[in-house]
Amino acid sequence: MDYQAALTILRNFRAARGWDDYHNLKDLALSVNLEASEVLEIFQWKPEDQALTDAETAHLKEEIADTLIYLFYMCDQLGMDPYEEIAKKMKINEGRHWKEDQN
Prior knowledge:
The chain has helices at residues 3-17, 25-41, 54-78, 82-94. It is an all-alpha fold and 103 residues long. The longest helix is centred in the middle third of the chain and has 25 residues, at 54-78. The N and C termini lie far apart (42 Å).
């Protein structure tokens, strides 16, 4: 599925539930943060070298999808193509260097 197909599905889903009024940038940004926190919660109290169980991996994928859904709704509100913005940002990042990179 490409971005436009995903966006069509998301728009139809939202419209069918009458959620348009709730999908303003502020509330979408809050929702992104809440869903991203649910991603983080999966790792809470786990040693960093402990592998995820199959159930935890499935849960993680769902929470990542939830986060992306809200981000796609934000992209739609802003009239932006996220893939174009990623490409632009990577060009900026290519020219950046962090202190940690210089050994």
